[in-house]
Amino acid sequence: MPLPNDDENGRRRCRDCGEWKPLDLFCSNSKRPDGRGSYCRDCFNVRSKASYAKRLREKQGREVQPRREVPEGHRYCPDCGETKPLDDFPRSRNDSGGRGRYCKPCHNARGQETRQRLYGGSREYHLRARYGIGQADFDELLWRQFGVCAICRAPDPQHVDHDHRTGEVRGILCFNCNGGLGQFRDNLEYLAGAIEYLKGTTCQRTLIHPGVYRISSSTRERRPSRSS
């Protein structure tokens, strides 16, 4: 038997707008015998938004911001209050549109503020995020090395050297030494080969008299030229 607001054609009359609509245009309601509520989906959405605005106003003292009309291919940044092209927003996997909520300058400013608030600065954040140590640990390692690079002994090195397989921090190096180890991929055979290569190709100074040196050229055998 149809309910008072239903007719024989399978339609229901919405209690808000008063229109007769098919049942599939009404929201689901498990408490009703037919599984459909008393309000059509459009009216239900209006009621839901009004209820949310009321709770927000009563509990937090805030008003729901009106929806902004944004041109296609653009996005509104809530921090700077400007509407900008999507290319001005960083990429994000967490957003359905593939772009972050804040424009790049505001995104960077928020990141800087977070690093300053949680870690006291970008340096501390970088050390902890990448190497698992803090600035105090860095300073202690450098103190143990007497304030110089662990390889070339250059003063005031600033680069953390770590084992790329285990992640363990090994020491503090200067820019050139740290980059050199990376280029040789921490391979002992490559490094030993480089030493032997330099021994065979680098000119040597030999003292023959006080203040007089003889420069000896490479002892490595040269390959014959194509013309010989």
From TrEMBL:
Q: Does the keyword Nuclease apply?
A: yes
**Which superkingdom does the taxonomy of this entry point to?**
Bacteria
Q: Which SUPFAM superfamilies match?
A: His-Me finger endonucleases (SSF54060)
Q: Which Pfam families match?
A: Endonuclease_7
For this protein, what is any one GO molecular function term? endonuclease activity
InterPro entries xref list:
Endonuclease_7, Endonuclease_7_sf, His-Me_finger_sf
Which keywords does the record carry? Endonuclease, Hydrolase, Nuclease
Record-given protein name: Recombination endonuclease VII
Organism encoding this protein:
Paractinoplanes brasiliensis
Highest classification ranks of the organism: Bacteria, Bacillati, Actinomycetota, Actinomycetes, Micromonosporales
